[in-house]
TrEMBL record:
<dbReference type="InterPro" id="IPR050809">
    <property type="entry name" value="UgpAE/MalFG_permease"/>
</dbReference>
<feature type="domain" description="ABC transmembrane type-1">
    <location>
        <begin position="65"/>
        <end position="419"/>
    </location>
</feature>
<protein>
    <submittedName>
        <fullName>ABC transporter permease</fullName>
    </submittedName>
</protein>
<feature type="transmembrane region" description="Helical">
    <location>
        <begin position="398"/>
        <end position="418"/>
    </location>
</feature>
<dbReference type="GO" id="GO:0005886">
    <property type="term" value="C:plasma membrane"/>
</dbReference>
<dbReference type="Pfam" id="PF00528">
    <property type="entry name" value="BPD_transp_1"/>
</dbReference>
<dbReference type="InterPro" id="IPR000515">
    <property type="entry name" value="MetI-like"/>
</dbReference>
<feature type="transmembrane region" description="Helical">
    <location>
        <begin position="341"/>
        <end position="362"/>
    </location>
</feature>
<keyword id="KW-0472">Membrane</keyword>
<dbReference type="InterPro" id="IPR035906">
    <property type="entry name" value="MetI-like_sf"/>
</dbReference>
<keyword id="KW-0813">Transport</keyword>
<keyword id="KW-0812">Transmembrane</keyword>
<comment type="similarity">
    <text>Belongs to the binding-protein-dependent transport system permease family.</text>
</comment>
<feature type="transmembrane region" description="Helical">
    <location>
        <begin position="300"/>
        <end position="320"/>
    </location>
</feature>
<feature type="transmembrane region" description="Helical">
    <location>
        <begin position="101"/>
        <end position="122"/>
    </location>
</feature>
<feature type="transmembrane region" description="Helical">
    <location>
        <begin position="69"/>
        <end position="89"/>
    </location>
</feature>
<keyword id="KW-1133">Transmembrane helix</keyword>
Length: 432
């Protein structure tokens, strides 16, 4: 009896510091948050369930709840799936270790640093944002880019609007004449790299000769409708000759702006098609209201797919190889081995990764706060960010903030209970 009492006292003495810390850092804050959630903004009057009612009536809080549901469903699933694919595919290659190191490396970066990195990656300007630089490059590979967005004629020029963004000459062109197609509205720095000083060609013996140029002299000077020495040709401008609504000839301006149309263009109206003047494609608004949440989830997956890969690879290393080889001997292909043998045997590890990431995304704050711009932060809102805004924002209400904290706790508890239950089941199976 004395030995048992002495053992209990020793155990209590060792556990006491941990229990004190647990009470001070976990139990007391939870209790205080629950109490504060039933008080009003000032903390002096009892508010009942008003703060909890606000969780389901305030539009920003409802958006946060909806986005948290998207996070919980999408982010852990995608990160776990990528981790599984990476772990399986790199198992048999010699450079697999190096690949795993590269994929796991983002885990060494803080959420703050990752947020700053991806804020730059998702920058709208293709010259700065990597995502849009790639997207615009792919787009321009399959779609013809406009060379002169916002270019236009002056009222004194021999061109007029034709509708749909195109321009036409005011009168038909005739053989023996030089067609002049002056435009303004293109900054000299945005002119094509191959543009050269414009020149007026001699009349063509056959067909129509012409010149298309930027009728603007840097520093002032020059005359409208006259090719001045310092004015540049509109290199690459597309010109069409139209008769009776039908295009009878086409030409493209050279580096000095000159072009020649065949004799069929005699008596035709020259048209500058709208494709010359389309606004350049600037890419996708990654941080706009519709894509900001998927974009931030993408940055989270970039960070945590390595974590999932390492845990799954560890589980994969412990699989009984004789089962995999037996399935291959029986005629199963690699996809069947993966789907019917590997994945079922890895189910406990996949459950650990999935549950861990679900708990993690319920608390996500840093990435949303850093990446989402102010104009889209309401659309990207999550509960942890709303907790911060409600508790410490310009219109702080600690009662509502405490209610959000309690809601987060209630959302985490079922996932934690599921994880504890799974761990106990695994322990019992191990003992058997």
């Amino acid at each position: 009896m004395a030995n048992r009492f002495r053992g209990t006292a020793v155990a209590a003495a060792f556990l006491l510091p941990a229990l004190v810390l647990l009470g001070a850092l976990v139990v007391y804050p939870i209790g205080y948050s629950v109490q504060r959630s039933f008080l009003d903004r000032s903390g002096e009057s009892f508010a009942g369930l008003d703060n909890y009612v606000a969780l389901f009536t305030d539009e920003s809080i409802r958006t946060a709840v909806r986005n948290n549901l998207i996070w919980v469903v999408v982010a852990p699933t995608v990160a776990t799936a990528l981790g599984l694919v990476f772990a399986v595919l790199t198992e048999r290659v010699r450079w697999g270790t190096a690949f795993k190191l590269v994929v796991f490396m983002p885990m060494a970066i803080s959420m703050l640093a990752a947020g700053i990195i991806f804020r730059l990656v998702y920058e709208q300007d293709p010259d700065r944002g990597v995502a849009n630089a790639v997207w615009v490059g792919v787009h321009d590979t399959f779609a013809e880019a406009s060379g002169f967005p916002r270019a236009r004629p002056l009222p004194v020029h021999p061109l007029e609007a034709a509708g749909g963004g195109a321009y036409v000459t005011r009168s038909p062109v005739r053989g023996g004449e030089v067609a002049r197609l002056p435009l303004i509205g293109v900054a000299p720095a945005q002119m094509p790299e191959g543009a050269r000083p414009a020149r007026t060609p001699a009349p063509a013996a056959e067909g129509i000769a012409g010149v298309a140029w930027l009728d603007f002299t840097r520093g002032g000077g020059g005359k409208p409708n006259v090719v001045d020495p310092r004015e540049l040709g509109l290199d690459g401008l597309r010109i069409e000759a139209v008769k009776g609504g039908t295009v009878v000839a086409r030409a493209t301006a050279a580096a000095d702006g000159t072009f020649i149309l065949p004799p069929a263009a005699d008596g035709a109206v020259l048209r500058l098609p709208a494709s010359n003047f389309r606004e350049q494609y600037d890419g996708v608004e990654w941080l706009g209201p519709s894509l900001v949440t998927p974009a931030i989830i993408g940055s989270y997956v970039w960070m945590w797919a390595g974590f999932a890969m390492v845990l799954i690879a560890a589980g994969l290393a412990g699989l009984p190889r004789e089962l995999l080889e037996a399935a291959r001997v029986d005629g199963a292909n690699e996809w069947q081995v993966f789907r019917r043998i590997t994945v079922p045997l890895l189910a406990p590890v996949l459950a650990v990764v999935l549950v861990t990431l679900m708990i993690n995304v319920l608390k996500v704050f840093d990435l949303v706060f850093i990446i989402a711009p102010g104009s889209a932060q309401d659309d990207a809102n999550v509960l942890a960010l709303q907790l911060y805004r409600s508790s410490f924002g310009t219109d702080a209400d600690l009662g509502v903030g405490s209610a959000i904290a309690v809601l987060l706790l209630l959302l985490v508890l079922p996932v934690m209970a599921l994880n504890i239950r799974r761990m106990r089941r695994t322990r019992r199976e191990t003992r058997r």
